[in-house]
Amino acid sequence: MSSRRLPTTQQNGRGRAPSSAGQHAIVPTISRPPTAIGRRAESVDIRDPPARKKESNEENEYNIRVAVRCRRRSEKEIEENSNSIVITEGPKSQSITIETAATTSVMGVVTLPPTRTYPFDVVFGPEADQATIYQEVVSPMLEEVIQGYNCTLFAYGQTGTGKTYTMQGDLQTSPLGNPLAGAGMIPRALTKLFQRLEGAGSDYSVRVSYVELYNEELRDLLAPELSAPTSSTTQPMGAGAAQPPPGSGSLKLFDDNAKRGVLIQGLEEETVRNASEAIALLRKGSERRQIAATKFNDHSSRSHSVFSITVHSKESSSLGDDTLKMGKFNLVDLAGSENIGRSGAENKRAREAGMINQSLLTLGRVINALVDKSSHIPYRESKLTRLLQDSLGGRTKTYIIATVSPARSNLEETLSTLEYALRAKSIRNKPEVNQRISRNALIKEYVEEIGRLKADLVSSREKNGIYFSQETWDQLSAEHDDRRTAFEEAKRNEEEIKSQMLVLREELEQGLAMLSAREAELREAHNDIEIRNLQLDQQRQEIQKTKCALEEESMIRQAHERNEKALEQVARRLKQVAQEATQDVIPGLHGKIGRTSQSLHKNSTVVLDQTQNMSQIVSKMKVVLSDFGAHQSKSFDSMSQGFQNIQQMQGQALTNLSSVLETRLKSLKDTAGRVFAIDEEDSSRMTAYRSVIEAFSDTLRADLSDWNKSMLQSCATVLSEVTHTQGTILAEVTDALDAYTGVFQTVLENARNVSSLNMEQQRGNEVLHNAFGNEEINRLRNQNKKLEQALVAEKAKSTEAQRTFLQDVAGLLRTYTQQQHEGLDRVASEAIAGNRASEQQIQRFGVSLKAARQLTVEREESFGRELESAQADSESIHTDGIKRLDELKRNAQQMESINDVMKKSLDELNQTQEGRLRAFKRQSDTTIHQLHSSKKARLEAVEEIVDNAVTGSKSIGIALDNHSQDVYGKLKSLNKTVQTLAGSSASFQTSEQKDMVAMETALKVIQEKGVQPVVTTNTTPKKRIWDCEEPLPVLGDRNAILEEWRRNVGSSSHSSSSQGSAGQAPIVKSEPQEELPPSPKPVKLSPPPLPLPPVKDIKNLNGPLIERPLNLVDTRNRRRKIVP
């Protein structure tokens, strides 16, 4: 993997303390100018004016972010039974809860412990892994470092809570160079940093430094020769045991001249080319850190450490100039705070713990001062706070990871850590981007650095040979003597070890020989054990055979006794069952059938009553609908008559107005003639003429006003009558429909209730019938089985009795047993036949009852469908009526609109006439004025007046004719609407009457077909007395039971036992037995298998073997015969 990198150089000397020969140059830890961790670098962008800088500083101020990580309980805490007191919400949340006391229980009442909840930016539970913490915390900070910011991440917490594991973790890498799952934040950040820089494709350089603060003393962990701390003689890890060379004292802190931060004198910064080199340096420094074992942790860090990553990358500006962008990432692993008494620290470790606690206490005071915004911040009281000066309240982006323990034993430390972190969360920083460095400034720094290095080289060349100080030479001599002494001791140890090895080899050979002898003895003992096992198996097989024979005989004997007792119990139960059947079951069944008949009769009565009620209601509804139709017809007739009267009144008014106009026009003409006749008369005539004109105008205006008022009054009267009539009709129709709907709903509800009641009763009857029938059938079947079992038992007993007689009377005994078998078969067959007949009779009754119930269900469903159809018809009628009512309401609204139109037309006519009268008056005044000037003009004016009056009267007549025709047309339309409403009302009445007829028909169908009596089938069982036979006599035959058991059960069990147990045992030939007389052919019945009796029953038998079961040999012979 290759990439372009910047040349490795030292930083310029601005702000550094003067260096001298024999001392390392002061290498700052932050660039431009390079400083220590707390250095506040210049962040003014060369492209931003000062005003914008100040404004951006105020806007970019933000709080330090704090994360909390809780580990799992350690093995030591589990062994101490220290319960967990930390409550988190999964791997990642924003709050943590601590139980500050234990759960208490008093008198059985449990009191929950008090808790405290702390909010943070993020809380990682025990389930969170290293990758989750890196993605949430470190990854965003790494991007900001690449952008040119200074960032700091430090871990704080109690000793043993996982600070070093979080920051470093597992430093090994995978074969591909990637960090392992347990890697901490530092190796993950290094790996991702180089991946990010190489992916960008620009020139870059990365330098790292690793510094340790131990007992307020700074040490460079990456120095070629690590000096031991002044407080200890040797390094705990074994490194750096040599004395420091001359002039290589511990690192020191200096403030730069501009008071912008601190510098570390003599700190080495190593340039790394890839992540592997950086992790190797990290591993090297980690091995040099001061660690020790305490009660809390076997590898407890006894110092603070700071791992710094400085990144330079080239960036091209918009002007083409190349600048360097610098960012720094400080990863701080603080030593753990601890209680010296609990940690077990003594002497040197106690002093270390005291110094750690002192530095952390100073850090806490700094945080409190920053939170309280105090005027004085005590940075200089500890080197730790001086290193972290810029990270706390400066221009650096800071993130704190507080680690806590979940155990109750660490409650105080956990609460202290959380309070500490919560206070630090309130600190506000002002992060700024570091200043870019131009190419010329960088070259200038390189030239100065080259000059300084040349001076150092010349000063070193002036010395001849290799120069050592006396202390170094003494140290080297002492080391050489130590090594020589160690070599001689090693040689002496080698001889001693060789002699010991020879002795051990001889002992090994002797042990091998003894082992071979013991193995031979063990083989012989093993063969002897196998022979003994074979003999033992043979003895076990013989014992097993004897036990089988004894168990078989014991089973037969006990089975005979149990069968006798069981037969007596069966007889008693049969008698009890018969008595219960005759006394309880049959009367209950007939009683239930009687109650069912009464329920059906009551249901029929209810249905008939309801149908009569519905018929009466339908008759009443018919009367109401016919009255409604007659009343509505009268209302429509009155409305039509009112419209005709309005039309006649309007025609008469128009005729009167026309005659008035004609009369006025005639009088005007006469007046004009008189004007022509007395043209030479005085002006007094003119005055009289003017008064006549004005009187004419007033009269005409009054006549028109009276006509308008009469027309409006007539229209209003007719409209109010029509509206009142329609309102009355609508109210009556609505009430009638509501009453009809309510009555019909009531009838439907009653019918449904009756139907549901019938269905429930039918279902109850069916359930009772099924339960009784099944119970009776089961009892009869059990009785048949018991009779068959009794028959088999009696036959077995008779066979046993037969085989006990002497051989001489075998023929007589066969005859006796045959007759007894025939009698038993006949009795059993008669009992079984009777039981089966009863069972068939009960089944036929069940079938008939199911058929009757099915018929009832079908009738109920038919009745329900008819009710639903009637309800649908009723709802459609109600809906139709509502629609017709809505049409009537709309017609009433149309009447009101017609009245408004008429009012508007009359107003327009009045305005027209008024305008014409005003024009006529103005024209008359003009004519009179002209008559005073000239007679000729007056004559012409009179002629013009007459002509205008004629024209005006014609136009008035035309307007009146048009208005009359308009009013007539609207009245005609309104009359048609009323006639349409009358037709709709008639059709509504007709449809209602049809619906009533359909409802009457449905009621008749319900009355005729809805209630029918139950069809009788003459299959219902009659009441009768049940006969029960006496218990059968008890007989016993052991040989028959044994033979039956061998045939049905013993064959399979003996064959399986012989195959499974012995298999290898030989069959022993028995001695010939005396021949027994042949037994009669057994009845093929299947009695229930009997359980095998335990062996201990046979052992309890007393007396000699001759008094025990007689067929032992026979049983063994039979068992041998069935062995395959």
UniProtKB/TrEMBL annotation:
* Database matches in InterPro entries: KIF11-like (IPR047149), KIF11-like_kin_motor_dom (IPR047241), Kinesin_motor_CS (IPR019821), Kinesin_motor_dom (IPR001752), Kinesin_motor_dom_sf (IPR036961), P-loop_NTPase (IPR027417)
A GO term for molecular function: plus-end-directed microtubule motor activity
Low complexity biased stretches: 1050-1065
In the record, biological process GO terms are: cell division; initial mitotic spindle pole body separation; microtubule-based movement
**Pro residues bias located where?**
1075-1094
- Listed Polar residues bias regions: 1-13
Which cellular compartments is it found in? Cytoplasm, Cytoskeleton
This protein is called Kinesin-domain-containing protein
Task: Supply one GO CC term from the record.
Answer: mitotic spindle
Question: Has UniProt tagged this entry with the keyword Cytoplasm?
Answer: yes
Respond yes or no to whether keyword ATP-binding is given for this record: yes
Q: Where is this region: Disordered?
A: 1-59, 227-253, 1048-1124
The record, for Pfam families, names: Kinesin
Query: Which family does the record claim for this protein?
Result: Belongs to the TRAFAC class myosin-kinesin ATPase superfamily. Kinesin family. KIN-5/BimC subfamily.
Q: Which residues form a coiled coil?
A: 487-584, 770-804, 885-912
Outline the extent of the Kinesin motor domain.
63-427
Tell me the Gene3D superfamilies matching this sequence: Kinesin motor domain
* Taxonomic source organism: Sistotremastrum niveocremeum HHB9708
> Which residue ranges have biased composition labelled Basic and acidic residues?
39-57
- Please provide the record's keywords in A-Z order: ATP-binding, Cell cycle, Cell division, Coiled coil, Cytoplasm, Cytoskeleton, Microtubule, Mitosis, Motor protein, Nucleotide-binding
Residues reported to bind ATP: G157, Q158, T159, G160, T161, G162, K163, T164
User: Primary place of residence?
Assistant: cytoplasm
